[in-house]
Amino acid sequence: MVRQFDTELDTLKQQILRMGGKAEAMIQSSVQALVKRDLSVADNLSQLEEEVNSLQVEIDDQCFKALALRQPMAHDLRFIIAAMKISADLERIGDQAVNIIENTKILLEFPELKPLIDIPQMAEISKGMVRDSLDALVEGDAAKAREIVLRDDKVDALKNQVFREVLTYMISDPRTIQVGLQLILVARHLERVADHATNIAEDVVYMVEAKDIRHHAEEEHHADKETQG
């Protein structure tokens, strides 16, 4: 017999997935507007932002009610705690998309500095991290969550590459400084998206294993590999 509480937790999980899908769509729209140099591509951004913010409020409200009325324990308690933290990270991912659009508005006032290669790649990796971290949540898959945490290094490397390339342009031609700064900021926003996805993956590990892997996930990974070897 299915507990009423199980149904409530499943509804909460579905809301998190819905929120994640909207946050991911916001990143997609904002980066496409930059790549295509067309702000109309992101016409839906304000509506998506409102929906993401509304879902965060709903999720938090359901979590507080569950804590007060159900007095959950063990895995259920960890899931509710994770749900609140994940909704906060998803809301901040949406904020990063809004920031990218603001940078894009400035960029469109200037000629294109260079073909955008690394930034779209950063966006794809970051979106994949968000999507896969939520899949890991649904599946209760701590191993998948750990793998997602390690992907953050790829995004960091691409951000550093963007910085180096753009800095070269800025040094050689001061007229490119404004454009260069905006591109660096976009890369930074996408790095933050990956950071929030990493937070979600770490929350999944905590939910499944009651183990906090923040700040030392990679070291733990290498230690596990050495143990297995």
Low-confidence stretches: none
Task: Please estimate the helix content.
Answer: over 70%
The fold-level CATH name is Methane Monooxygenase Hydroxylase, Chain G, domain 1
Q: Kindly state the number of beta strands.
A: 0
Count of separate DSSP helical elements: 7
Strand content: under 5%
Termini distance? 44 Å
| CATH homologous superfamily title | Phosphate transport system protein phou homolog 2, domain 2
Mean pLDDT over all positions: 93
Give the C-level CATH assignment: Mainly Alpha
| CATH architecture descriptor | Up-down Bundle
Q: Element order, helices and strands? A: HHHHHHH
Structural class: mainly alpha
Characterize the overall form. Answer: elongated
Rg measurement, Å: 19 Å
Number of domains: 1
How can the largest sheet be summarized? Answer: none
Overall description:
This protein has 229 residues and is an all-alpha fold. The protein has one domain: Phosphate transport system protein phou homolog 2, domain 2 (Methane Monooxygenase Hydroxylase, Chain G, domain 1). Helix content is 83%, strand content 0%. The chain is built from 7 helices and no strands. Helix 1 (4-36) packs antiparallel against helix 2 (45-70) and helix 3 runs antiparallel to helix 6. It is elongated. The model has no long low-confidence stretch (mean pLDDT 93).
